[in-house]
Amino acid sequence: MNSSKWIWRSVGILSVLATLLLLAGFVYAVKDIQNPQAVKEQGPKAAEPQTGTVSSNPETAKELKFAVLGDSLAKGTGDNSGMGFARRTIKELSSSGGRKATLLNNLGINGLTTTGLLPKLEERGTKYVLGQADVILLSIGGNDLFQGADLISKGIAGTSSTAKGQELDPKDLLKGLPKASTQLKAILERIRAINPNALIVYVGLYNPFGDIEDLQFPGNEAVAEWNQAALDTINKYGNMMLVPTFDIFQHHLDRYLSSDHFHPNGDGYQQIAVRIVQAIR
């Protein structure tokens, strides 16, 4: 009799415990539903570093490395300060926009043409500099279109009687255009192959003889065709651009050209630099 009471008492206790256990589980489930953050806190930690470790504007935080390539404009001839558009671009970018920028090397050469530049792209030193750059500034083509421009400048200034008899024939401006523009296309594509990631900025041509009646129209025509040929190649790539300069000099040759009537002066190079910074910022 006593054993039966003990059995039933044990069963009752177990039933109460089971009920309490079920009730506790129910309460926990309700809290889990109402407060799902407890589950998230147990999730993987790998996703946490994604916020706060990447700069909100990584482009402005990066120091841009510039390389300059091409002719006497790339070198900065005509600028009494020796800065040219290359160093003026670095200075303008750093001072006005707070962007860090450095000039790796200026490979500009006086008198260089597209014919002369093509083999230089295969030189080890040139390829090394271009390969290290984030931005490549290119100026080439003026000597292709305006062969003998130095003679014209002397003739205009009246300092050379020989030069006056050897002035450039306006028809000659367009003669070499097809070959030179083809070589410009090869130059742009070769630079792209050397450094597929760099931004290539081609400085478009202007007509330095726009104030000479016989050379104004053919010069403008040749420059327009040249710049369009450059655009035909540049537009095929997302990280190439042409910075126009024709409008800068068109009605301001007396203000922005140096005494040789061909290269920009300091103010002219500054205008080009401002245009470059506006394009790449």
Helix/strand layout:
Layout: H1 2-34, H2 37-40, H3 58-61, E1 64-70, H4 72-75, H5 84-97, E2 101-108, H6 114-120, H7 124-132, E3 135-139, H8 142-145, H9 149-157, H10 161-164, H11 172-175, H12 177-194, E4 199-203, H13 213-234, E5 240-243, H14 246-249, H15 253-256, H16 266-280
Parallel strand pairs: 1-2, 1-3, 3-4, 4-5
Helix pairs in contact: 5-16, 6-12, 12-13
Describe this structure in words.
- The chain is α/β, with parallel strands linked by helices and 281 residues long.
- It is 57% helix and 10% strand.
- The protein has 16 helices and 5 strands.
- The chain has helices spanning 2-34, 37-40, 58-61, 72-75, 84-97, 114-120, 124-132, 142-145, 149-157, 161-164, 172-175, 177-194, 213-234, 246-249, 253-256, 266-280; strands at residues 64-70, 101-108, 135-139, 199-203, 240-243.
- The protein has a 5-stranded parallel beta sheet, with helices on both faces.
- The termini are far apart.
- 34% of the residues are buried.
As residue ranges, the low-confidence spans are 32-61, 148-166
Shape: globular
Largest beta-sheet characterization: 5 strands, parallel
What pattern of helices and strands is seen along the backbone?
A: HHHEHHEHHEHHHHHEHEHHH
SSE class = alpha/beta
Query: What is the overall number of helices?
Result: 16
**Overall average pLDDT:** 79
Instruction: Give the termini distance in whole angstroms.
Output: 97 Å
Rg measurement, Å: 35 Å
Q: Number of DSSP strands?
A: 5
Share of residues in strands: 5-15%
Helix content: 55-70%
Widest sheet: strand order? 2-1-3-4-5
